[in-house]
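ABC transporter ATP-binding protein: structure, please.
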Amino acid sequence: MTDNNGLGDHLTFRTIDLTKHYISGETVIKALRGVTLEIPKGDMVVLLGPSGSGKSTFLNIIGGLDTPTSGEVYFRNDRLSQYTEKELTLFRRHNVGFVFQAYNLVPSLTALENVALVTDISTNPLPPMEALEAVNLGDRASHFPSQLSGGEQQRVAIARALAKRPEVLLCDEPTGALDSATGIVVLRALQDVNKKYGTTTVIITHNASIANMADRVIYFGDGQVVDVKRNDNPISPEEISW
Ligand SMILES: Nc1ncnc2c1ncn2[C@@H]1O[C@H](COP(=O)(O)OP(=O)(O)OP(=O)(O)O)[C@@H](O)[C@H]1O
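Here you go.
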């Protein structure tokens, strides 16, 4: 699977001229129109752009949930865009934690049990309690989702994603359902995880102020990358206001 275009140690992803076309009846929707990008290992990256600009499509492709129409995706030294379905399943299982706007917790399981579900199928998991402590929820381990606030449930979802010790955390609108104060606590959990475990973190948001806590901001427009900015002084989530 390794070839000469491998990324070496400093990049988690590289995409080359990535396109994604969806066929809808007679129409072809060009969700991605040639995206060439690098995502350095350990970076916290924010994707910004108008609705329909291709952010989720891009995230789903690098996360192995979808495949490109053309172009290449490299994960470390591996050409992800040539993976079989089975290889993509293993890639997701071992390397990628997903966090979505919906928390998708199992209501009949406690916070700790929700996290432990994932560690059962991982090769080198974090102890579930350590994952909960990383998002500052160690004291809520025995609570059920219905006993937790939205922000706390989202932090359980982050702990669950983190518990398999993934290289990458991919987050699609993780604060989309939360008020700003709660959103900031969730962003604090993501920043703590990024710093403590060196997890490459990619966050889609509609909230431009969140970009100030990123190492790198990638702006999408009409299926393309229109700008990439490096931020040498990312701020802490508590300094963000929206
Ligand atoms: N499964 C699909 N079938 C058909 N069209 C799709 C599909 N998924 C996405 N699209 C289209 O591809 C384009 C890009 O969608 P995408 O969800 O990637 O944008 P986005 O930037 O994430 O938008 P949002 O911010 O609203 O979530 C849109 O025009 C969308 O309607």
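Notes: Strands lie at 11-24, 27-40, 44-48, 70-75, 78-79, 96-100, 168-172, 200-204, 216-221, 224-230.
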